[in-house]
Amino acid sequence: MRNTVSIALTFLALLIIHVQARTDPRQCTTSCGDIHNIGYPFRLRGDPSHCGDPDYELYCDANNRTILNFHAGLYYVKRISYADRVIRLVDVNLATGNCGLPYRSLGIEEVLGDGRYNRKYSSPHASFVRCSVEINSMRNNIVPCLSGNTSRVYVNYTDYMLYYLDIPRSCSVFAMALSGGSDDPKVNLPTSYDDIRRKLQLGFDLTWTVECRDCLADGGYCQFLTEERNRFRCSKEEDYATQLRNAILYLAAVFVIGMTILCRYILAPLVVFNFILHKCCSKRNRIEQ
Ligand SMILES: *[C@@H]1O[C@H](CO)[C@@H](O)[C@H](O)[C@H]1NC(C)=O
Ligand SMILES: *[C@@H]1O[C@H](CO)[C@@H](O)[C@H](O)[C@H]1NC(C)=O
Ligand SMILES: *[C@@H]1O[C@H](CO)[C@@H](O)[C@H](O)[C@H]1NC(C)=O
Q: Where along the chain do its domains lie?
C-alpha cells in the first residue's frame, strides 16, 4: 500500500514538473548586447525550452557579448540576418586585432561536415603556415609574434584550399580561420599580414541550414545542388537501393516487351513464312517429280 502511494506521488510530481516545463511562462530573451534580434532557430542559454532550437544555442557573456560555441571554438556573433539566413561570427582571439592565432582552428570541412551550417567550399580563409626556414616570397606575410629563430609562421590568405604542393616543402599548415563572406570578390583578397589581420578581425559568414541538420539526423546527407546557398536535396542511402531496384525492374520490363515484339512481329511471321515456303517448295517438288 505504502509502495503504491509513493509510486503515485512520484508520478504526480513528474507530471507537475512536466506540465510546468511545458507551460514555462518566461519569455524568450531576444537581445544580448548589440544583438537585438535573437530568434528561431537561435536561442540563448538559460532560456525556457520552447525557445529556439537547442542545436543553435548562443550565450550572453558577462560583458553582454553574444557568443556561439562551435566545435569548442568561441565566436562573437556580430550580426544575424534572417532574410538570407546568414550569421556573422568573429573568432574571440582574432576579434582583438592583435597578432596571434585563432582561439581554435576552423576549416571549411568542419563546417560542411556538421550540417547545421553551410558555406561555399571555395571561400576566403587564412592558413597559418609554419616553416623551418625563411621563405622569402612570403616575407610580407610573416606573423611576428609567432615566429622565432627556429621556426617561422606565415599566413596565407586564399579563396581555395591550399594543397600540400601549394606551400613550400619546409612548411606545413597548422591552423586555419574562415574569413569574409562566401562570395567576396577575388580582387579584394588581402596580401600582407597586417591587411589579413584586419580582415580576420571582421569575421566570417555562415548560412544556417536547419533542414540539412534534420536530413543528417534522419540518416541522410545533404546534396547541395549548386554553389548557391541553401539549395540542397536530402539524399538517403536507401535511395540508391531503390534506384537500383527500379533500374533492374525497368530493364526487365524493356527485355520482356522487346521479346514480345520480337516473337509477335518478327519470329512469328518468320515461322509462318517458313511454313508457307516449306509447303510451297514441297508442293513444287511434288509437281516436278
Ligand atoms: C548587460 O545588459 C544588461 C541588460 O541590458 C544590463 O543590465 C547590464 O548592466 C549589462 N552588463 C554590462 C557588463 O554591460
Ligand atoms: C634569435 O637570434 C638572435 C640573433 O641571432 C638572438 O639575439 C636571440 O637571442 C635569438 N632568440 C632566441 C629565442 O633564440
Ligand atoms: C598563398 O600561397 C599561394 C601558393 O603558394 C601563393 O600563390 C599566394 O601568393 C599566397 N598568398 C599570400 C597572400 O601569401
A: 1-64, 68-236, 244-278
Dump pLDDT digits (tens) for 182-221: 777 878 899 999 999 999 999 999 999 999 999 988 888 8
Whether the CB of 64 sits within 6 Å of ligand 1: yes
Counting from 1 in the atom list of ligand 1, the atom nearest the Cα of 63 is 13
E runs forming strands in the chain: 43-44, 57-60, 66-70, 73-81, 86-91, 117-118, 125-131, 152-158, 171-178, 204-208, 220-224, 232-236
**Chain segment 128-161, per-residue pLDDT in tens:** 999 999 999 999 999 999 998 889 999 999 998 8
CA dist 37 → 42, 60, 77, 229 (Å):
10, 13, 11, 22
Query: 153 CA to middle of ligand 2, Å?
Result: 16
| Ligand at shortest distance from the CA of 36 | 1
Q: Is 206 helix (H, G, I), strand (E, B) or coil?
A: strand
How is residue 257 annotated by DSSP? H
Cα–Cα distance measured from residue 150 to residue 147, given in angstroms and rounded to the nearest whole number? 8
72-116 pLDDT tens trace? 999 999 999 999 999 999 999 999 999 999 999 999 999 998 999
